[in-house]
Amino acid sequence: MNYLSLATFIYSFNENNLMISFDKFTLKNGLRVVVHQDQSTSMAAMIVMYDVGSRDENPEKTGFAHLFEHLMFGGSANIPKYDEPLEKAGGINNAYTTNDLTTYYLSLPAQNLETAFWLESDRMNMLAFSEKSLEVQRNVVTEEFRQTHLNQPYGDAWLLLSPLAYKVHPYQWPTIGREISHIQNAVMEDVRTFYNRFYNPNNAILVVAGNVDLTDVMRLSEKWFAPIANQGQNIRMLPKEPEQTEMRFLETCRDVPSEMIFKVWKMCSRLDAKYHATDLLSDIFGNGNSSRFYRNLIMEQKLFTELDAYITGSLDEGLFVISGRLSPGISLEKADHAISLEISKLQDKRIDDSELQKVKNKAEVQLTFSRMNIINKAISLAFGELIGDAGLINTETEKYQAVTSEQILSIAQELLTPERCSTLYYRTQK
Fold this sequence. Notes:
single chain; Cytochrome Bc1 Complex, Chain A, domain 1; 12 strands; 7-stranded mixed sheet; globular; 5-stranded mixed sheet
């Protein structure tokens, strides 16, 4: 057997949460495999998560991680059209790319599980590179760039915000890329180099979930994935973003229906002990109709028609984001001042335990609902394994519930300072 290790993790039901049981093993080529058995469904889900995102790109050749998301559906050595055999097996599929990772996922009737192994292993082993495929996907991605970032109202906001907030770290460009020419100028040599470095078994995590049998998954993993050799090594040496010590400001003017404001602060990484408290802090400001922003700045003062607060959740130092669409006749300066006042209120006084418990409960509900979908559950297992341990899926609720009002106050005071803030005013053309 080509297994480096095999471990079983069994969790039992507790009064708050149904814990997720799983097994995991590692093939000799480095592929980590996680198996979750759920006999309540007739379906199976397969996730292949690659440890590559836009942060791994050459600053002069950005957008490649997202380009590869498209290229991986362009056919492999033995499968000219990926979708056809999957659809015949009753399956569906999709993929997404972030700054940190690339995920391919599918679901199909459990009895057709081997079709999934065949499809995913073939494109990991030998993607069908051709000038025609590259040209087609290059055109698709450049058109997507135009539609979502150049021709859509506010579409270029993150093209402006990312380099405003980051000066060194590759989060300074969005997943779509820094500029459209980088994809337009992509050549076959660039594509092969990127594939050989990142699309390897030792840079991927395979999750199989649903009405599956562990022994069968081990056999199929051995048959389809164990023979795949690693063509490269992903050694990540990213520059650390220096601490921001002064306010940054940018304004732009576009043909948009209303003015918007964006304010971002660099926050901790995904694995930092402060992450869950920072996430709840954003919810206190902007999650739902009972949030402070909605009650005070939308309903009471009517300064905004929309106002959100959220975090990027990046693996490296991410962003705490506040973005809002202004009501007619309200100036950006007045709206900005109102946001600052709301921040000051939270920094001046510890929040009531009842208000904190409310956002904790919302977080728990969202986590619980995410586990009802077999694909989402499998993605959560893959992400947990990517950042250290698939078992993290079973500790998220506990970590949110452990946050105290004192921690919220401390993070608000430490994080949301003017000198750490980058602000974008998005003005309408007069």
